[in-house]
Design goal:
six-stranded antiparallel sheet, 24% strand, 18% helix, alpha+beta, four-stranded antiparallel sheet, 12 strands
């Protein structure tokens, strides 16, 4: 298992401009948060820094760094937010979880969340998340203890034992076309904002090419 050195942990992702969350290394060598990597792999299909093409099957075997540490990271929180995939519940990543918990504790009815390049509306009354650009893409969500059995974190499958994986880790990751797909909860949703702001793609377009 690859360990991330302290100086690396202090660096920031060039896409979201925040400290790395589940840092993921592309074949070209550039490193981004896993969800940022997932977003550019699904939408732009090229590295946000050098524009190298990302292999179509990369998300099936991403190179994840310091993964062991991140698996247990949310267990230190009092509550964990989950979303429902095609075969069970999945944890939100630590950053998204903290944001949702903050909104919930403030008594907000709704919130917006950028996940893997797509903007979602979070409805705390109906306990669902809805993709702004496509309201048919929705998931049930729930707030529970950090110890609820989960399939993985943010699309990273934990079903296989990663303790025995060699460094760097090749961990199965499920994209939206597989078991981590969005499911139709049969809830009627009226979307007042049908246009997707697509903030993620704009962030990527504004990045300067790596030289």
């Amino acid at each position: 298992m690859a360990d991330v050195q302290p100086e690396f942990q202090e660096q920031y992702c060039a896409v979201c401009l925040q400290m790395y969350d589940h840092p993921t290394k592309l074949p070209c060598g550039h490193i981004f948060c896993f969800l940022c990597t997932k977003g550019i792999a699904l939408q732009n299909k090229t590295c946000a820094m050098c524009r190298s093409v990302i292999p179509n099957d990369y998300l099936n075997k991403p190179v994840l760094l310091s993964y062991n540490k991140n698996i247990e990271e949310n267990r230190n929180q009092d509550y964990q937010w989950y979303y429902e995939g095609g075969n069970g519940w999945w944890k939100y990543d630590k950053r998204s979880n903290s944001y949702l918990e903050e909104l919930y504790n403030k008594g907000e009815k709704e919130g917006s969340l950028l996940l893997a390049g797509y903007l979602y509306r979070i409805d705390f009354d109906k306990n669902i998340q809805v993709r702004v650009s496509d309201p048919t893409k929705k998931r049930k969500i729930r707030r529970d203890t950090p110890f609820l059995p989960a399939k993985g974190i943010a699309g990273i499958d934990l079903s296989s034992s990663i303790e025995n994986l060699e460094s760097p880790a090749e961990v199965q990751v499920l994209d939206n076309t597989e078991r981590d797909e969005e499911v139709d909860t049969s809830v009627e949703i009226i979307d007042e904002n049908s246009a997707d702001e697509d903030s993620f793609s704009e962030m990527v377009r504004n990045l300067r090419p790596y030289s």
